[in-house]
Protein backbone atom coordinates (compact mmCIF):
# COMPACT_ATOMS: atom_id res chain seq x y z
CA UNK A 1 0.00 0.00 0.00
CA UNK A 2 1.02 3.66 -0.10
CA UNK A 3 3.73 4.30 2.49
CA UNK A 4 4.46 7.56 4.31
CA UNK A 5 7.97 7.94 5.70
CA UNK A 6 9.39 10.97 7.50
CA UNK A 7 13.01 12.05 7.17
CA UNK A 8 15.18 13.32 10.02
CA UNK A 9 13.64 16.79 9.65
CA UNK A 10 10.08 15.55 10.08
CA UNK A 11 9.00 15.88 6.45
CA UNK A 12 7.50 13.12 4.33
CA UNK A 13 9.95 11.84 1.75
CA UNK A 14 10.56 9.21 -0.90
CA UNK A 15 14.31 9.08 -0.36
CA UNK A 16 15.63 5.52 -0.49
CA UNK A 17 18.01 6.24 2.37
CA UNK A 18 15.09 7.07 4.68
CA UNK A 19 13.37 3.79 3.84
CA UNK A 20 16.63 1.89 4.31
CA UNK A 21 16.94 3.26 7.85
CA UNK A 22 13.45 2.10 8.76
CA UNK A 23 13.76 -1.46 7.47
CA UNK A 24 17.45 -1.60 8.54
CA UNK A 25 18.47 -3.26 5.27
CA UNK A 26 20.66 -2.12 2.40
CA UNK A 27 18.61 -1.30 -0.71
CA UNK A 28 20.52 -2.25 -3.86
CA UNK A 29 17.95 -1.27 -6.50
CA UNK A 30 14.70 0.68 -6.43
CA UNK A 31 11.72 1.24 -8.70
CA UNK A 32 9.83 4.09 -7.05
CA UNK A 33 6.37 5.43 -7.77
CA UNK A 34 5.68 8.69 -5.96
CA UNK A 35 2.33 10.08 -4.89
CA UNK A 36 1.09 13.15 -3.05
CA UNK A 37 -1.63 12.15 -0.63
CA UNK A 38 -4.15 14.63 0.74
CA UNK A 39 -7.15 13.66 2.87
CA UNK A 40 -10.27 15.48 4.02
CA UNK A 41 -11.82 15.66 7.49
CA UNK A 42 -15.58 16.01 7.05
CA UNK A 43 -16.14 17.17 10.65
CA UNK A 44 -13.75 20.08 10.26
CA UNK A 45 -14.48 20.51 6.54
CA UNK A 46 -10.76 20.91 6.02
CA UNK A 47 -8.09 19.08 4.05
CA UNK A 48 -5.33 17.24 5.90
CA UNK A 49 -1.70 18.26 5.26
CA UNK A 50 -0.33 16.89 1.98
CA UNK A 51 2.05 13.93 2.32
CA UNK A 52 4.58 12.73 -0.23
CA UNK A 53 4.64 8.95 -0.14
CA UNK A 54 5.87 5.81 -1.84
CA UNK A 55 2.96 4.73 -4.00
CA UNK A 56 1.72 1.16 -3.80
CA UNK A 57 3.56 -0.90 -6.41
CA UNK A 58 7.00 0.54 -5.71
CA UNK A 59 9.62 -2.24 -5.70
CA UNK A 60 12.99 -2.61 -3.99
CA UNK A 61 15.80 -5.13 -4.18
CA UNK A 62 17.23 -5.47 -0.68
CA UNK A 63 20.27 -7.21 0.71
CA UNK A 64 19.47 -9.58 3.55
CA UNK A 65 21.62 -10.68 6.45
CA UNK A 66 21.06 -13.24 9.19
CA UNK A 67 17.96 -12.42 11.20
CA UNK A 68 16.57 -9.92 8.69
CA UNK A 69 13.81 -12.23 7.43
CA UNK A 70 12.21 -12.71 10.85
CA UNK A 71 12.39 -8.99 11.59
CA UNK A 72 10.85 -8.07 8.23
CA UNK A 73 8.09 -10.63 8.73
CA UNK A 74 7.17 -8.85 11.96
CA UNK A 75 7.20 -5.50 10.13
CA UNK A 76 4.85 -6.96 7.51
CA UNK A 77 2.32 -7.52 10.28
CA UNK A 78 2.57 -4.01 11.73
CA UNK A 79 3.47 -1.98 8.64
CA UNK A 80 6.17 0.68 8.31
CA UNK A 81 6.18 4.45 8.41
CA UNK A 82 3.35 6.72 9.50
CA UNK A 83 -0.44 6.21 9.78
CA UNK A 84 -0.24 2.43 9.61
CA UNK A 85 -3.55 2.31 11.50
CA UNK A 86 -5.16 3.83 8.38
CA UNK A 87 -3.73 1.15 6.09
CA UNK A 88 -0.53 2.86 5.02
CA UNK A 89 2.84 1.10 5.12
CA UNK A 90 1.81 -2.43 4.10
CA UNK A 91 4.45 -4.34 2.18
CA UNK A 92 5.46 -7.85 1.13
CA UNK A 93 8.91 -9.35 0.64
CA UNK A 94 9.78 -12.18 -1.73
CA UNK A 95 6.84 -11.41 -4.05
CA UNK A 96 8.69 -12.81 -7.06
CA UNK A 97 9.52 -16.13 -5.37
CA UNK A 98 7.54 -19.36 -5.42
CA UNK A 99 8.22 -19.65 -1.70
CA UNK A 100 6.08 -16.62 -0.87
CA UNK A 101 3.42 -18.77 0.78
CA UNK A 102 6.02 -20.27 3.08
CA UNK A 103 6.97 -16.76 4.13
CA UNK A 104 3.46 -16.19 5.39
CA UNK A 105 3.05 -19.53 7.08
CA UNK A 106 1.99 -19.01 10.64
CA UNK A 107 3.73 -20.94 13.30
CA UNK A 108 1.35 -23.49 14.68
CA UNK A 109 0.28 -22.51 18.14
CA UNK A 110 0.24 -25.35 20.59
CA UNK A 111 -1.76 -25.11 23.75
CA UNK A 112 -1.35 -27.52 26.60
CA UNK A 113 -4.39 -28.44 28.60
CA UNK A 114 -3.99 -27.35 32.24
CA UNK A 115 -3.60 -30.12 34.78
CA UNK A 116 -6.02 -28.43 37.18
CA UNK A 117 -9.78 -28.76 36.86
CA UNK A 118 -11.91 -26.02 35.31
CA UNK A 119 -12.99 -23.46 37.96
CA UNK A 120 -16.71 -23.35 38.73
CA UNK A 121 -16.97 -19.72 37.63
CA UNK A 122 -15.51 -20.64 34.24
CA UNK A 123 -17.85 -23.63 33.97
CA UNK A 124 -20.86 -21.39 34.56
CA UNK A 125 -19.69 -18.87 31.95
CA UNK A 126 -19.11 -21.61 29.36
CA UNK A 127 -22.46 -23.21 30.19
CA UNK A 128 -24.30 -19.92 29.67
CA UNK A 129 -22.42 -19.41 26.41
CA UNK A 130 -23.46 -22.85 25.13
CA UNK A 131 -27.07 -22.16 26.09
CA UNK A 132 -27.02 -18.75 24.36
CA UNK A 133 -25.61 -20.30 21.17
CA UNK A 134 -28.31 -22.99 21.11
CA UNK A 135 -31.08 -20.47 21.75
CA UNK A 136 -29.79 -18.19 18.99
CA UNK A 137 -29.56 -21.16 16.63
CA UNK A 138 -33.16 -22.18 17.31
CA UNK A 139 -34.47 -18.64 16.96
CA UNK A 140 -32.88 -18.35 13.51
CA UNK A 141 -34.27 -21.75 12.59
CA UNK A 142 -37.76 -20.72 13.74
CA UNK A 143 -37.66 -17.49 11.72
CA UNK A 144 -36.59 -19.38 8.62
CA UNK A 145 -39.33 -21.98 9.11
CA UNK A 146 -41.98 -19.29 9.60
CA UNK A 147 -41.33 -17.89 6.13
CA UNK A 148 -41.97 -21.27 4.52
CA UNK A 149 -45.71 -21.16 5.33
CA UNK A 150 -48.38 -19.56 3.15
CA UNK A 151 -52.09 -18.68 3.58
CA UNK A 152 -51.53 -17.51 7.14
CA UNK A 153 -54.22 -17.70 9.85
CA UNK A 154 -55.62 -14.49 11.41
CA UNK A 155 -53.22 -12.65 13.77
CA UNK A 156 -55.72 -13.09 16.61
CA UNK A 157 -55.48 -16.90 16.41
CA UNK A 158 -51.69 -16.81 16.25
CA UNK A 159 -51.67 -14.42 19.21
CA UNK A 160 -53.79 -16.83 21.28
CA UNK A 161 -51.43 -19.70 20.53
CA UNK A 162 -48.45 -17.53 21.41
CA UNK A 163 -50.10 -16.57 24.69
CA UNK A 164 -50.84 -20.23 25.44
CA UNK A 165 -47.12 -21.04 25.14
CA UNK A 166 -46.29 -18.43 27.78
CA UNK A 167 -49.01 -19.80 30.07
CA UNK A 168 -47.94 -23.42 29.53
CA UNK A 169 -51.28 -24.44 28.02
CA UNK A 170 -50.18 -24.71 24.39
CA UNK A 171 -50.86 -28.42 23.84
CA UNK A 172 -54.25 -28.19 25.57
CA UNK A 173 -55.10 -25.24 23.33
CA UNK A 174 -54.27 -27.27 20.22
CA UNK A 175 -56.42 -30.20 21.37
CA UNK A 176 -59.45 -27.99 22.06
CA UNK A 177 -59.44 -25.81 18.96
CA UNK A 178 -62.72 -24.59 17.55
CA UNK A 179 -63.57 -25.81 14.08
CA UNK A 180 -62.87 -22.43 12.47
CA UNK A 181 -59.45 -22.17 14.12
CA UNK A 182 -58.61 -25.74 13.15
CA UNK A 183 -59.59 -25.03 9.53
CA UNK A 184 -57.38 -21.93 9.47
CA UNK A 185 -54.40 -23.90 10.73
CA UNK A 186 -55.01 -26.69 8.23
CA UNK A 187 -55.33 -24.26 5.34
CA UNK A 188 -51.96 -22.67 6.20
CA UNK A 189 -49.18 -24.91 4.94
CA UNK A 190 -45.61 -25.19 3.76
CA UNK A 191 -44.42 -27.41 0.94
CA UNK A 192 -44.23 -30.30 3.42
CA UNK A 193 -47.17 -30.06 5.82
CA UNK A 194 -50.02 -28.04 7.27
CA UNK A 195 -49.42 -25.61 10.11
CA UNK A 196 -51.60 -27.74 12.40
CA UNK A 197 -49.50 -30.85 11.75
CA UNK A 198 -46.32 -28.84 12.20
CA UNK A 199 -47.39 -27.49 15.61
CA UNK A 200 -48.54 -30.92 16.78
CA UNK A 201 -45.29 -32.59 15.77
CA UNK A 202 -42.64 -30.02 16.66
CA UNK A 203 -39.85 -31.98 18.33
CA UNK A 204 -36.81 -30.13 19.59
CA UNK A 205 -36.09 -32.42 22.50
CA UNK A 206 -33.24 -34.15 20.68
CA UNK A 207 -30.44 -31.60 21.07
CA UNK A 208 -27.82 -34.01 19.69
CA UNK A 209 -28.42 -32.95 16.08
CA UNK A 210 -27.92 -29.29 16.99
CA UNK A 211 -24.73 -30.00 18.92
CA UNK A 212 -23.32 -31.94 15.97
CA UNK A 213 -24.10 -29.11 13.55
CA UNK A 214 -22.34 -26.42 15.58
CA UNK A 215 -18.59 -27.01 15.47
CA UNK A 216 -16.91 -27.60 18.82
CA UNK A 217 -20.02 -27.15 20.95
CA UNK A 218 -20.35 -30.80 21.95
CA UNK A 219 -16.68 -31.05 22.95
CA UNK A 220 -16.99 -27.83 24.91
CA UNK A 221 -19.95 -29.17 26.88
CA UNK A 222 -17.94 -32.29 27.71
CA UNK A 223 -15.04 -30.19 28.98
CA UNK A 224 -17.25 -28.68 31.67
CA UNK A 225 -19.13 -31.96 32.30
CA UNK A 226 -22.43 -30.44 31.21
CA UNK A 227 -24.72 -33.07 29.70
CA UNK A 228 -27.05 -30.71 27.89
CA UNK A 229 -28.88 -33.56 26.19
CA UNK A 230 -30.34 -34.71 29.51
CA UNK A 231 -31.14 -31.23 30.81
CA UNK A 232 -34.94 -31.48 30.67
CA UNK A 233 -35.47 -27.97 32.05
CA UNK A 234 -33.40 -26.44 29.27
CA UNK A 235 -35.07 -28.58 26.60
CA UNK A 236 -38.46 -27.28 27.68
CA UNK A 237 -37.14 -23.72 27.60
CA UNK A 238 -35.69 -24.28 24.13
CA UNK A 239 -38.93 -25.54 22.59
CA UNK A 240 -40.84 -22.69 24.23
CA UNK A 241 -38.47 -20.10 22.75
CA UNK A 242 -38.65 -21.79 19.35
CA UNK A 243 -42.46 -21.77 19.23
CA UNK A 244 -42.72 -18.21 20.56
CA UNK A 245 -40.30 -16.99 17.88
CA UNK A 246 -42.06 -18.99 15.17
CA UNK A 247 -45.60 -17.84 16.02
CA UNK A 248 -44.55 -14.25 16.67
CA UNK A 249 -42.98 -14.10 13.21
CA UNK A 250 -46.11 -15.58 11.61
CA UNK A 251 -48.31 -13.08 13.46
CA UNK A 252 -46.26 -10.11 12.26
CA UNK A 253 -46.43 -11.41 8.70
CA UNK A 254 -50.19 -11.90 8.95
CA UNK A 255 -50.63 -8.32 10.18
CA UNK A 256 -48.52 -6.94 7.35
CA UNK A 257 -50.52 -8.94 4.82
CA UNK A 258 -53.76 -7.60 6.32
CA UNK A 259 -55.20 -10.92 7.46
The order of strands across the largest sheet is 1-2
Gyration radius, in Å: 31 Å
Q: What percentage of the residues does DSSP assign to strands (E)? A: 5-15%
Distance between the termini: 57 Å
Structural class comes to: mainly alpha
Q: Helical stretch count?
A: 11
Low-confidence stretches: none
Shape assignment: elongated
Share in helix? 40-55%
Number of strands: 8
What composes the largest sheet? 2 strands, antiparallel
Overall domain count: 2
Overall mean pLDDT stands at: 82
Instruction: Please trace the helix and strand order, writing H or E for each element.
Output: EEHEEEEEEHHHHHHHHHH
In short, what is this structure?
48% of the residues lie in helices and 10% in strands.
Your description of this structure?
With 259 residues, the chain is mostly helical. It folds into 2 domains: 5-104, no CATH class; 120-256, no CATH class. It contains 11 helices and 8 strands. The strands form 4 sheets. The protein has a two-stranded antiparallel sheet. Helix 4 (120-146) runs parallel beside helix 11 (232-256) and helix 5 (155-167) runs antiparallel to helix 11. The chain is elongated, with a radius of gyration of 31 Å. The chain starts with a strand and ends with a helix. The model has no long low-confidence stretch (mean pLDDT 82).
Topology record:
Layout: E1 5-6, E2 12-13, H1 16-23, E3 26-31, E4 34-37, E5 40-41, E6 46-47, E7 51-54, E8 59-63, H2 68-78, H3 100-104, H4 120-146, H5 155-167, H6 170-175, H7 179-187, H8 195-201, H9 208-213, H10 217-223, H11 232-256
Antiparallel strand pairs: 1-2, 3-8, 4-7, 5-6
Helix pairs in contact: 4-11, 5-11
